[in-house]
Design goal:
Blueprint: H1 7-21, H2 32-38, E1 44-48, E2 51-59, E3 64-68, H3 76-82, E4 91-95, H4 112-125, E5 132-136, H5 139-149, E6 156-160, H6 169-177, H7 179-193, H8 199-208, H9 217-221, H10 229-240, H11 242-249, E7 260-265, H12 273-282, E8 287-292, H13 299-302, H14 304-315
Length: about 325
């Protein structure tokens, strides 16, 4: 896959820039109380650095595994995916990243590094030692920042359809001058605006493609939690920093000395498996690559057993 963004995509983003200049901003978010009444917390809320932090724990065993969700979602996504696994030999700890679900994020900037440190503080306060980190999509960035900053504290890492490689220099330049910021704002606004006409269902269908959206997935995962203004702003902030975060991270992949399991679907339309799976694994000293035939971006739902087996390999 070409690491440079396509000319077509570049022209589209330029058009988005022009469009935003003459498009009035609207707020199509949902009230917090409406979303939170329908989808209450699954687990425990505690104060971490004076901010509410939400976690949910299942299973048992001496090994702790922390599941970090991707963009525009919350810990319920991982809980739903892992519900298909009947028995594990480890403790599953699901966390809401700051700004998502029921974990708070103030208006100050929250980099992937800061999010990693916040979750790390949670583990320290709860005596969770040497966890295995499992990150899906954008959650991979948080796990990678944690591993590189504190390698002796982590037993291993499982990247599931992770955002692991940059898309080329032009992407970084476009990010620096704000074109990506504009595109993210427009996309988020349109998604929220068109909920009544099925935008959430269409979004889920595309994300899961070529697999079908699992039955009762949207009922469980709580899409309204992602429609709150504070979560929309948090998600936008994350997406806007993706290019710069990756540019810094991938320079240091050779330093990672913990075992890393890389799982990626060959039909992932969002993150190409050759770039974010194969090329990423090739940069790591201790990696094992699992490519899934016919599987798209939501690989943890399509093949939860592949994730479970990867975790067990690290434990063993």
């Amino acid at each position: 896959m070409d690491r440079n963004i396509s000319r077509k995509s570049f022209l589209w983003l330029c058009a988005a820039s022009a469009l935003s200049a003459c498009t009035r901003r609207h707020d199509f978010s949902i009230l917090d109380i409406d979303a939170e009444t329908r989808y209450p917390p699954l687990g425990k809320i505690e104060l971490i650095n004076d901010l509410n932090f939400h976690s949910f724990v299942t299973g048992g065993g001496p090994q702790s595994v922390i599941f970090i969700h991707g963009a525009n979602i919350n810990l319920r996504d991982w809980v739903f995916a892992n519900s298909k696994i009947r028995q594990t030999q480890y403790k599953s700890i699901y966390v809401d990243r700051p700004g998502f679900g029921y974990s708070e994020r103030p208006n100050s900037s929250w980099s992937a590094v800061k999010q990693a440190e916040h979750i790390r503080k949670f583990t320290q306060l709860n005596n969770i030692n040497e966890p295995i980190l499992v990150g899906h999509s954008w959650g991979s960035l948080v796990a990678l920042e944690w591993i590189l900053a504190h390698p002796d504290e982590v037993k291993g890492f499982v990247s599931v359809a992770g955002v692991n490689s940059s898309f080329g220099k032009i992407t970084e330049v476009m990010s620096e001058i704000g074109i990506f910021n504009i595109a993210v704002e427009i996309y988020s606004r349109n998604l929220a605006k068109n909920v009544s006409s099925g935008s959430i269902e269409r979004f889920a269908k595309r994300v899961f493609s070529p697999q079908k959206v699992p039955e009762k997935y949207l009922e469980f995962v709580g899409p309204d939690l992602s429609r709150r203004q504070k979560t929309i702003l948090a998600n936008n902030e994350d997406l806007k920093q993706t290019a710069s975060t990756l540019a810094n991270l991938e320079k240091r992949y050779s330093e990672i000395q913990v075992p890393v399991e890389v799982i990626h679907g060959k039909k992932d339309w969002l993150l190409d498996h050759k770039l974010h799976g194969q090329a990423f694994a090739d940069e790591l000293p201790l990696s094992n690559l699992t490519l899934l035939d016919g599987v798209g971006h939501m690989a943890h739902h399509a093949s939860p057993n592949a994730v479970n087996k990867a975790i067990k390999r690290i434990i063993d």
